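Backbone geometry tokens:
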Amino acid sequence: MTKIDIRNKKILFLGYGGVAKCTWNYFAAYFKCDSRKVYIVDKCKWQIFGPNLQKVPKKNIIIANINSNNFNDLLKKIGLKEGDLIIDLTFSSDTYYFIQTCFLEGLNYMNTSIEDDNDSFFGTSIDLQQKIVKEIYENCKKKTKIRSNILTEFGQNPGLIQHYIFYSLNKLNKMKHGNSTADDYSKETMLKVVDDYQIGTIYCSEIDNLVKQNESATSMPLDKIYNTWSVGGMLSEALDKTELVHGLGNNYVQPTIPKREIDKKKTELLPKNKDQGYEVFFLRHTGMHNNLNSICPVLDSQGKIKFVNYEGKLIHHGEMFEMANYFGKKSPFMTYVYKVNKYADQSIKQFYIDNPSSNEEDLSLWVMSDCNSFEVFNNIGKKKGDRMVGHDSIGCTIYCGKKSVERIFWCGSILSDTDQNVDANFTPTIVQVAAGVLSGLSYIMEEKHKGHGLYDPTELDTNYILQKATPLLGKFFFTEIPKTLFTGKLDYKKTA
């Protein structure tokens, strides 16, 4: 892999949780950089650990909660200048202000989610958040010449998942022409494939199958909230009311959601844009209580691929709204159907057992205010019985048909702890996210893309992104799933 030379740039990691640790661990495989110019900032002192951290000077590690009040002071203290890079892997920070400042100062910037801390009601609409970022960009262009690149919402999903969809549609287009045609990722072709194959529904399907290596050797204390990638990020999505989207001109097979489950009042508060071609609406319940059936491949006990039907939670994610904006009126119904890691699920349930009078806001406040209230799984310094093993299956499940499901396709990554490029210190889920961060970061830091401005994930070259990401994706493939293997229905289900 050709490394990008950024030795002349200072690099700031905002947040040093699980994703940042893993990203820095693999950083040297993607970039030539000067570790003396790397800076790390996190509000939790206990988060500052992990492999290769000794390469970063101790004076470059800062414990602080960064927001709009002290962001400029931080940049001045570190001495960031035009062309330098900020990798924002925080949760619920002042994202809008960070983005605006980086445009005005000519700093390169990327993040894996928007989740601006200043959002209140409208912050729970990811579709609106994406529109706000675009407004900030347009306003900045009026004030200054754009001299840097900013990429928002690029990890595994959102981020790589959009390119799994594009890769799938390109494969379907080639299949239609007997595999004799060249790659064609033009928007015109992508939209045509939706009609050619009658694609009515696309689920971002994930099954998190990570477990402790020896569950009988030690029990998991349920005195905190666990997750395999980000606790704060998961809760911000899972404890919001589910936000869904579909194109107004797509009449192919889609799930049935009873009208009584739609939150009409909240939906009506969203700004209306008659020209966008797609409809955004909210469900009455939070993501943890909304479910749909999906199907995707996993690994059996012998490590062979098999297809499983499962029920997953409807967690809203940025990819579905960006893809809806891309497809417009032809947009399929899209949502994220997530089978949460079992320890994450158990720990959230235990919180409500221990605190029966608490609500979602209480849980979020606890995690936000107490660094000891949560843990993202890793294997750094862990004893054998406490190590996390298993695999994570993440991809897009594409349902085709006019009135009923006629064909099903899947594309994505199944990454196991035994795969060659999975560092023993990290879990497959974290490595998959880091693959997105590093591939997206590589694209915007290419010299030929200098000064482009705001990048949406869909604007990046799919072949480039996948070439950079697949070394960290284990089994990456596209396949058709026989429809007879799908035993579920595309119907909504509410759980307690």
In short: Residues 126-143 form the longest helix (18 residues).
